[in-house]
Design a protein that fits this description.
The complex is a heterodimer.
Chain A: E1 2-10, H1 15-25, E2 32-37, E3 43-51, H2 54-65, E4 70-75, E5 81-92, H3 98-107, E6 111-116, E7 120-127, H4 129-142, E8 145-150, E9 154-157
Antiparallel strand pairs in A: 1-3, 1-4, 2-3, 5-7, 5-8, 5-9, 6-7
Chain B: E1 20-22, H1 23-33, E2 39-41, H2 48-60, E3 72-73, H3 78-92, E4 96-100, H4 104-107, H5 110-119, E5 123-129, H6 145-150, E6 155-158, H7 165-177, E7 183-189, H8 190-194, E8 196-198, H9 208-218, H10 224-236, E9 240-244, H11 246-250, H12 254-263, E10 268-270, E11 285-288, H13 295-303, E12 306-310, E13 331-336, E14 350-353, H14 356-369, H15 381-393, H16 407-418, E15 423-426, H17 430-438, E16 447-448, H18 459-469, E17 475-480, H19 481-486, H20 490-496, E18 502-507, H21 512-521, H22 538-544, E19 549-553, H23 559-568, E20 573-578
Parallel strand pairs in B: 2-3, 2-4, 4-5, 5-7, 6-7, 9-10, 9-12, 10-11, 12-13, 13-14, 15-16, 15-17, 17-18, 18-20, 19-20
Antiparallel strand pairs in B: 1-8
Helix pairs in contact in B: 1-2, 1-7, 3-5, 3-18, 10-14, 12-14, 13-15, 16-17, 16-23
Classes of the chains: A alpha+beta, B alpha/beta.
């Protein structure tokens, strides 16, 4: 089962390596990993997508919580949450079904062309992983894909609850 | 980062606060402030400033009789330094310190660091590193220690800001000793050691997450409702058993455990790491359980109806088949300090995360105050009688009529002299298990062994470290001919420092434990484990390294006299014993087998029909 785990991490040298290392050493999969500093520059937030049953996820969370740099950790998939991924894809104009491409872009307000070259377009899209997959499947039927970059998932919980480091 | 600098130096109360010091001097001063009384280490280019600072510190602070306050003990190999620091830590409960250079010096400590992590032993390893400007340039003796150690240690610091050095060192000691203890590595580039600093005398790094979790565990208490739930379940049990692990010793909770067990007349079995948590000579001690536990301990686990796990983690050498482990127990209670150990292997019906000694004391007092008095009510009399019969019928035993020296007899002979009051260290393999089975341990911290990692070569350097922690106790390394070869260079370290350590090599001409597995599971194909053609003369090797007392014992008739002379010798002594090469370790619960499938060998009575022959199992078994 797919799980999204959010980790607040002290922004120390090597902290990210320790989280990633723990996952590989204990044989846990990382399907995607997104990390950036938060509004507090001393704290990074890491969103990790993994999979496993309740017992496995329970161990992942508990073992990760033992890392010295970890401030807080939560399994966001246990409750309502919002998640988003970014897709940037470069398509070729040769072989492009232009009318269908335009229609596709109309159908997907989250998609936009962010760069136009002589023989290519760069399309950017953001949404849940499922949305990204669906959009990409559609797009790749209409245009030759030259290059693709995709971020991992970023996620926050719904409502007023906030993941903050413990005092 | 600012939190480090919040106190002006002159307000910290340290007599040296505000003094100008080099980074290297700061290292040595923090070691002294932390109460470090011995440092195990090997010098080298990238750690030279710290070695020089130790030299100067010792010269300036020599005691009236000329003794150094911070002696540097030099091993043959940095792995030895790491295990000496561990031996010191295991025997004393204090943080052991190793000081090594960059590159190979640091990588040689990877094994003891991982070993310390696996057995939860507090050590701090300080490594020199190439100057910050040279990091990442493939410099001479450069290795990515923070990456390598991150996977092995409880925590690793690479100090890149000299202003944070002092707080980092203090924090390293804090992390090593607090919570579930473990190894901390501090990688110190040479330019940081040479930096001109002002000593502050106090301050640690901010660790808000770690300290908050620690506080939550440290302050956790058992309220009346949770005590009541525990005793409700226990009140229905008639065959309770305590299963105690190394966590009891790490938490200094052996007194509380003994009080608890005594108050409620409860039998105790311990893991390999838990030996000494209770006095193994007492009637209600069942000694060790598990893969090579006593048959009576393992049968007691099968027969109990209530299991109390204390500082133990149901590891694969104890609960090889978790679902079958303690299959008759209707209730499992689990005490630990590490949340990740609860429900990891075996689901607990009741658990408590917190200070072990306080929790056991709270429960004991609650139980007594609420009229739980199984001893007075003879509640467990049938269970005690059953256990006494198990101990009698399925006692440890071996071939007492053999013409060859039996390793068990060697240990029994030493134990008859030391009587559970000596420090025993071991390598890894058959001799380790024989020592665990046949020695008495009356107190904690007398048994030093590489339990989880199973590192051959542990015994000799660990004995050296332990002797520095406990000058008052005899220290005996029970080793194997294969294990001792791994760190044989440390024989010379024993004599260099004049340590009265007794080294026993039980020589069965090979890797006995692996041979035992090959015999049982690989149809006797002894691939690479037979050392009968090896040429080493151990006695001459020991003599060459300065052992005045070094003997080979091959005649069983001489055993009592030679052992007595060996143990009594005033100084380092080395004894090679040529043992029966076919002596095995029994009982044995094979990998992936249940206690019901335990093999007891030819001399211990089993209560099950023994399997006729064992076939090589699936390759995953380990």
């Amino acid at each position: 089962m797919r799980r999204i785990i959010a980790i607040l991490l002290q922004n120390e040298a090597g902290a990210l390596v320790r989280v990633a290392g723990l996952f590989s050493a204990r044989g846990y999969n990382i399907d995607s990993l997104t990390v950036a500093a938060t509004h507090d520059p001393a704290i990074s937030r890491l969103t990790l997508v993994t999979s496993g049953d309740d017992a496995v996820i329970d161990q992942i969370v508990k073992q990760s919580r033992k890392l010295i740099d970890v401030l807080e950790i939560a399994d966001l998939s246990r409750s309502d949450h919002l998640e988003s991924e970014l897709l940037i894809v470069k398509i070729g104009l040769t072989g492009l079904a232009a009318a269908e491409f335009d229609a596709c872009m109309q159908r997907h307000p989250a998609a936009r062309v962010v760069d136009q070259g002589a023989g290519s377009r760069v399309v950017q899209f953001s949404g849940t992983g499922r949305d990204v997959n669906a959009f990409f499947a559609e797009l790749s039927n209409l245009a030759p894909v030259l290059e693709l970059a995709r971020s991992g998932t970023a996620a926050v919980g719904c409502g007023d609850a906030v993941l903050t480091p413990r005092a | 980062m600012n939190a480090v600098l919040e106190d002006p130096p002159e307000t910290t109360g340290h007599p040296l606060a505000g003094s100008a010091m080099s980074g290297a001097d700061v290292v040595v001063q923090v070691l002294a402030d932390e109460g470090v009384e011995v440092v195990f280490g090997y010098s080298g280019g990238a750690i030279l400033p710290v070695y020089d600072a130790v030299f100067r510190y010792n010269r300036e602070h020599a005691t009236a009789d000329g003794a150094e306050p911070l002696p540097l003990i030099v091993p043959a190999n940095e792995q030895g330094a790491g295990f000496m620091a561990q031996g010191y830590a295991r025997a004393s409960g204090r943080v052991g310190v190793a000081l090594v250079t960059s590159g190979p010096g640091a990588t040689n400590t990877v094994t003891p660091v991982r070993d310390a992590m696996a057995d939860s032993i507090p050590i701090v390893v300080l490594c020199g590193q190439v100057p910050t400007g040279a990091i990442g340039t493939d410099a001479f003796q450069e290795a990515p220690i923070s990456n390598i150690m991150a996977a092995c240690a409880k925590h690793v610091f690479l100090v890149t800001d000299a202003e944070r050095l002092e707080a980092t060192l203090r924090t390293a000691f804090e992390i090593a000793r607090t919570g579930r203890p473990g190894p901390v590595v501090v990688d110190i580039p040479k330019d940081i050691q040479n930096a001109e600093l002002r000593f502050r005398g106090s301050g640690t790094l901010p660790l808000p997450g770690y300290r908050a979790r620690l506080r939550a565990i440290d302050t956790a208490t058992l309220d009346a409702a949770r005590c009541a739930a525990f005793f409700d379940a226990l009140g229905r049990a008639r065959r309770p058993l305590i299963y105690a692990g190394g966590g009891v010793i790490a938490a200094d909770a052996t007194g509380a455990l003994r009080d608890f067990a005594r108050a409620f007349a409860m039998p105790v079995t311990t893991t390999l790491m838990g030996l000494g948590a209770v006095d193994t000579t007492e009637a209600l001690s069942l000694q060790m359980l598990g893969m090579h536990g006593t048959a009576f301990a393992n049968y007691a686990v099968e027969d109990c109806d209530f299991l109390i796990a204390v500082g133990a983690r149901f590891d694969d050498r104890v609960a090889g088949v978790p679902q079958a482990f303690a299959g008759g127990a209707r209730y499992i209670a689990h005490f630990d300090v590490d949340p990740a150990e609860i429900d990891k292997v075996k689901r607990a019906d009741w658990h408590h995360l917190g200070n072990l000694a306080r929790a056991l004391d709270t429960l004991r007092i609650y139980g007594l105050q609420h009229g739980f008095r199984p001893r007075e009510q003879d509640l467990y009399a049938p269970w005690h009688a059953h256990l006494a019969a198990l101990k009698r019928t399925h006692a440890m035993n071996y071939d007492r009529a053999s013409a060859l020296i039996q390793p068990y007899a060697v240990i029994e002979a030493i134990n008859a002299i030391t009587r559970g009051r000596a420090i025993i260290s071991t390598g890894v393999g058959q001799h380790q298990m024989w020592a665990a089975q046949y020695f008495d341990f009356r107190e904690p911290r007398l048994w030093l062994t590489s339990g989880s990692m199973g590192t051959m070569g542990f015994g000799l350097p660990a004995a050296i470290g332990a002797q520095f922690a406990r000058r008052d106790l005899p220290v005996i390394d029970i080793d194997g001919d294969a294990s001792i070869r791994m760190n044989l260079g440390e024989l010379e370290t024993v004599t260099t420092y004049g340590l009265p350590i007794k080294v026993v090599v039980l020589n069965n001409a090979g890797d006995g434990m692996v041979r035992q597995w090959q015999k049982l599971f690989f149809k006797g194909r002894y691939s690479a484990t037979d050392k009968s053609l090896h040429k080493k003369d151990f006695v001459r090797a020991a003599q060459a390294d300065g052992f005045e007392w070094a003997r080979r014992l091959a005649d069983p008739a001489e055993l009592p006299a030679v052992i007595a002379e060996f143990v009594a010798f005033d100084g380092p002594a080395f004894l090679e014993v040529v043992i029966d090469p076919d002596a095995g370790v029994y009982p044995m619960v094979g990998p992936g087998m249940t206690y019901a499938q335990m093999i007891t060998g030819d001399f211990i009575v089993s209560r099950q029909a023994q399997p006729a022959a064992l076939e090589a199992g699936p390759s995953e078994m380990f």
